[in-house]
Amino acid sequence: MTCVITSEIFTENKNLYIKYKNNNAISSFIFKYPSYMIKSKCLNNIINHDNDNDILLDRQQEGKLLIEHHISTNLQYVGLQVWRGALLLADYILSNPSLFKDKIVLELGAGVGLTSIITSFLAEEVICTDIDVKGMLKLIYRNFIRNKNYIKAKICIKELDFLNLKSFTSYKKKLDKVNVILAADVIYDKTITEGFVQTLSELLNSDISKVIYIALEKRYVFTTADMKTTAPMYEEFLELIEAKHFNWHIEYIKIDFPQYFKYNRIKQMVLMKIENKLNK
């Protein structure tokens, strides 16, 4: 029996979407502009004024991303939806522009591309990757086109499959130049989690200092075998890292930074920072 899954994003906060075609929808994701973006608009004379020449801040304090996505999927295609982790990571990027400005940024498992689009406000180049199934890469491309007025970075959309690392052999030299790696909500399946850890290992095996930001949600289940509640995929991820004895520096980032998107930032959400120890 196939289990159909729908992201909480579309059941909480009354996030609205418009049916597009087949099982696809287009949602408006409203976000508040960080102060530096409002200032930038002022410098570029984009701020609107009323008849008395007063600034219409109410129009300029919010932006809107138009994102095409699936309404529901089975487990293997959940990347076609939008999840809380992508919005948490987007909030962190908007809250810390200096960490991403003029950087070459790679997103793993980008799904519908929302986090990559936000990153493109600041970065020099964004390499947006995922597996090429169900038209995923074409959907990402359409979402970049829908939001082209926001895009400041050079964009590269490529396939990268955690379970087939040969998929990025053709552009490995480009990946070697990456400064920052992003991943949101990619830890939900044992096999994929194992592939994700191996992918991180390949990418961090570099002479260039790299930092990874991973956003995820601890999803708890009760097991009768152990008679306790656990977050199995999160724990699997940590166990895999520990077992490999990687020379990585791991830090947990407090998630009390400003919230720009509308979603429930629940306590089960986690934001991890991982660095390869070159100069440590």
Automatic annotation (TrEMBL):
Q: Which GO terms describe its cellular component?
A: nucleus
This protein is called Methyltransferase-like protein 22
Coiled coil spans:
none
The record's SUPFAM superfamilies line, in alphabetical order, gives: S-adenosyl-L-methionine-dependent methyltransferases
Q: Which InterPro entries match?
A: Methyltransf_16 (IPR019410), METTL22 (IPR038899), SAM-dependent_MTases_sf (IPR029063)
One Pfam annotation reads Methyltransf_16
Molecular-function GO term, any one: protein methyltransferase activity
Organism lineage: Eukaryota, Metazoa, Ecdysozoa, Arthropoda, Hexapoda
